[in-house]
Amino acid sequence: MRILLTNDDGVTSEGLLTLAKYLSREHEVVIVAPESERSAVGHAITIHVPIWVKELKICEHAKVYSITGTPADCVKLGVDVLFREPDVIISGINKGPNLGTDVIYSGTVSGALEGAMSGYPSLAVSSADYQNPLYESAAEFMLEFLKSFDFSSIPPYTALNINVPAIPYERIKGWRFTRQSKRRWEDYFEARVDPFGRTYYWMLGNVIEDDEDPDADYKAVQEGYVSITPVSVFLTNESYLKKLKTLEPRKE
Question: How many CB atoms sit inside 10 A of residue 88's CB?
């Protein structure tokens, strides 16, 4: 297959280059990724300044393009200019999980959703541990997953958000299809003072995992399974919309 890779951790990140190394064993791989880390940029795109592209000789396994934009920009440029008509678009391997409300902020997931909007089978993949990610496990899983999954089954405007436990590959129990959980962050701000006496703030947070649904994404990862969640670009709360429709004023 022809595979376009992107990410939000930057073009030189270990997760991205590890994935390229593994996938290039059996596939043609081209990397189009941000020149520096663009984590938590969501689905931002660049419209007010130029986007610069530079080809880098940093990976023997794939052609690599560094761009000054976001993950979504990378996919747009990838499919329109740099690598037309890929068979699959993969965003990752992200350092740390993208579970629950992480999906809203994630540049990694947004790269995959941009691919889905462009009409390509698209996947986001993360190694679900910030401190000790195991990129090799996630890369090996992706290589095997590409062989067995029917990508034609993915509906339009939908991407697969994949979170791989950061454990040795042989210990992974399998995969589960899951739903985006209510896993979220309780944020707080720590005030600090710079050398000039000016106060600034650093955002920190504690994760809240209280979703009782057995199909919650984070529960699969905790139990040693790869979590695979279909996510869509459309955010309408359909059940609430149906309720609101009953409240619409009716003409006499």
Answer: 19
Distance CA 239, CA 69 (A): 36
pTM for the predicted model, two decimal places: 0.95
CATH classification number, 2-181+214-236, choose in 3.40.190.10, 3.90.950.10, 3.40.1210.10, 3.60.15.10: 3.40.1210.10
CB atoms under 10 Å from CB of 105, counted, come to 17
Q: How far apart are CA 204 and CA 6, in angstroms?
A: 27
Find the helix packing angle between 14-23 and 135-148, rounded to 10°: 40
* pLDDT tens, residue by residue, 156-205: 999 999 999 999 999 999 999 999 999 999 999 999 999 999 999 999 99
DSSP 160-211: EEEEE-SS-GGG---EEE-B----EEEEEEEEEE-TTS-EEEEEEEEEE---
Q: In angstroms, how far apart are the furthest CA atoms of the chain?
A: 71
Domain ranges in the chain are 2-181+214-236
For the cut 70, the answer to whether the pLDDT of residue 46 exceeds it is: yes
Give percent above pLDDT 70 in the chain: 100
Residue 116's region, left for phi above 0, alpha for psi from -120 to 50, else beta, is alpha
Give percent of the chain with pLDDT exceeding 90: 97
Sign of CA dihedral 4, 81, 39, 58: positive
Residue keyed to tokens 């297959």: 1
Residue 156 and residue 77: Cα distance in Å, rounded?
Answer: 20
